[in-house]
């Protein structure tokens, strides 16, 4: 027999430890043992939840894989968003630095031109 199948069969019902759990209940307001056996089912413990919320135990794995995949995707998305934010912040900072350097250069140039004009004016007056 398949090893994985055997592991799945090892799920035991909490209330009936001699029984293998073969159903699970995903109802949000279920207060019963979520993973349960045929005995529980016969006692109609999840009777109100049965139709849409109770599934076979062998579908639990797939459900959990899908759920964990979703949360992995969420983490991946958040990381990408964080990287993009950091990147645009970097652009913003380098843009600001560029502008402030540009502004300083312009200021320095205009001071230089003013000084030259003063100098030439002096020379003119001295003659
Ligand atoms: Zn239930
Ligand atoms: Zn049970």
From TrEMBL:
It comes from the Eukaryota. This is Uncharacterized protein. It comes from Paramecium octaurelia.
């Amino acid at each position: 027999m398949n090893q994985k199948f055997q592991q799945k069969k090892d799920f035991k019902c909490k209330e009936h430890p001699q029984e293998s759990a073969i159903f699970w209940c995903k109802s949000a307001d279920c207060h019963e043992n979520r993973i349960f056996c045929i005995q529980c089912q016969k006692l109609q413990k999840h009777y109100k939840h049965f139709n849409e919320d109770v599934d076979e135990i062998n579908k639990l794995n797939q459900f959990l894989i899908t759920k964990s995949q979703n949360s992995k995707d969420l983490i991946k998305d958040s990381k990408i968003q964080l990287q993009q934010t950091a990147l645009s912040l970097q652009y913003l900072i380098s843009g600001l630095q560029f502008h402030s350097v540009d502004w300083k250069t312009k200021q320095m140039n205009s001071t230089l031109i003013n000084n030259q004009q003063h100098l030439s004016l002096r020379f003119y007056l001295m003659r």
